[in-house]
Amino acid sequence: xxxxxxxxxxxxxxxxxxxxxxxxxxxxFDEPMTWExxxxxxxxxxxxxxxxxxxxxxxxxAYPIRYYLETQQGLAFARRCAIREAKSDLIGFLDDxxxxxxxxxxxxxxxxxxxxxxxxxxxxxxxxxEVEPPPGxxxxxxxxxxxxxxxxxxxxxxxxxxxxxxxxxxxxxVIRKQAWIESVPKHPLLPQTNEDLEMxxxxxxxxxxxxxxxxxQLDHVIPKSRFDQDYLMQFFRxxxxxxxxxxxxNYKPWQMxxxxxxxxxSDFLKIIQHWIKYRRVLKQDVVAAGxxxxxxxxxxxxxxxxxxxx
Length: 310
Description:
By secondary structure, the protein is α/β, with parallel strands linked by helices. It has 2 domains: 4-226, Spore Coat Polysaccharide Biosynthesis Protein SpsA, Chain A, CATH 3.90.550.10; 229-304. The chain has helices at residues 17-25, 48-57, 75-85, 104-114, 177-183, 192-205, 229-241, 243-248, 256-278, 286-300; strands spanning 4-10, 35-41, 65-69, 90-95, 98-100, 118-129, 153-154, 174-176, 209-222. Helix 2 (48-57) links the parallel strand 2 and strand 3 (65-69). Helix 9 (256-278) packs antiparallel against helix 10 (286-300). Residues 158-164 and 306-310 have low confidence and may be disordered.
């Protein structure tokens, strides 16, 4: 039987995949385990398939690399392909710019074995920057799927040490196949920038636990282009406009007439506070401008519910 699956979902990843596969080639284990690597090519237009074929031909380890082509564009569809094809119940998802530590697979497997009620869990993600981040970057680091911590905790509300505000990032997330099959709908409603929140919200609402495991660590490669102001504005806009839908996943229909106005008042006050604090530097400070963009789009997000491709 296969104990663990590493699934790499990639689009045009010919230049990034080799670094990830080399990290997986050198994984360390305290005891033998049977695992596999799945590469899901999400309709790439470069030589991604050729790169995987070359690795398959020269792969000298006991665990296999398998390749699948998913022609329907979108991370949710690539992940669904991996869920369908994985031979294990625990599936660790790596993006093609995620570089796992040497013990990442072993720690991910052992945590899943010791926490059978965990439907999903993530770990520490450290930034590997091509250039120095802009001043104030720590305020928006969570949007770049970066997270640190030295103690495990559960996101479920019944635990005293819960962290309810944010689920773990999708980079390096481990999903229990049973939890996905029981919880996640066949057709995702959100684009990639919010797909992780939608997936984890459904799993959490179905009663599965969601955990943070600090023993799982990886580096997230962040290129210079991610700090371009035009990119950041579009990125934050897409995140903000879908916030209302993600929020409402946690409420019943009868609660919405109460919580929607409450959120809008709170969001409006945050806009005012941010403008007062940063009004003199909004045109020069890319971080402050990005924060303002997401605050504004979150505020108007109730009027965009259900719209796609934002």
